[in-house]
Amino acid sequence: MSNSSKQVFAKGQLIIISGPSGVGKSTICDQLVKQLDNVYLSVSATTRSQKNGEENGRDYWFVSRDEFEKQIKAGNFIEHAEVFGNLYGTPKDKVLQALDKGKTAILEIDVQGAQQVKNLYPAAKLIFILPPKQTELEKRINDRGRDDETDIEKRLDGAGIEIAAAWQHYKYMVINDDLQQAVQEVIDIIKKPVGEQE
Predict the structure, then answer these.
(1) How far is CA 20 from the centre of its chain?
(2) Is it the case that residue 4 has pLDDT exceeding 60?
(3) What's the alpha-carbon Rg for the chain, to the nearest Å?
């Protein structure tokens, strides 16, 4: 069923990677960039404060809430959402440029944002990364040393909701028990012919 407001890209491919905090999404995305040719990894904008070791433009584009809201009004995000009291969004221009050049554009975003993107770009492939078990997720979040107790609790509560939503909306689910195996599964999904119905 075609819809004039929906776009399909003949050249590039849009891949969405989602999953709860601490599941290893960023590590998997970094590996995809290393192991695949012609890939663009989107950098999200956020209003949250920069954490130790994070770099502006590499991890996120750190902007004020005021600036973020201006960008929303200007229509500069493919998707945006509020998560744990902070705004996150995917800058539209760079993703569209990458797709236009025939690249595989990878977006590491949450379930809420993924649904917005899928509505606009039905050909997007949605991949959800699952932890081997809940206790492992808790351990990984704690081991990162980036979040305080309150943040950890919020993230673990949010993980259950996100995983439940993913079972409804995502075609591809990958368990990150063994990193290399998980990366290979994601690569295989990316390389699948686009002709398949999502």
Answers:
(1) 10
(2) no
(3) 16
Is residue 86 helix, strand or coil? Answer: strand
Among 72-76, 81-85, 119-123, the minimum mean pLDDT is found in 81-85
Pick from 86, 121, 117: which is nearest to 18 by CA? 117
**What six digits make up the tokens of 185?**
């599964």
The residues near 84 (Cβ < 8 Å, ≥ 6 apart) are: 48, 151, 154, 155, 158
Separation of first and last alpha carbons in the chain: 13
Contact predicate 89/97, CB 8 Å: no
Please tell me what DSSP assigns to residue 50: P
Which amino acid is present at 197? Q
- What single string gives the DSSP state of each residue in 84-142? TTEEEEEEHHHHHHHHHTT-EEEEE--HHHHHHHHHH-TTPEEEEEE-SSHHHHHHHHH
**Average pLDDT rounded to a whole number, residues 92-108:** 94
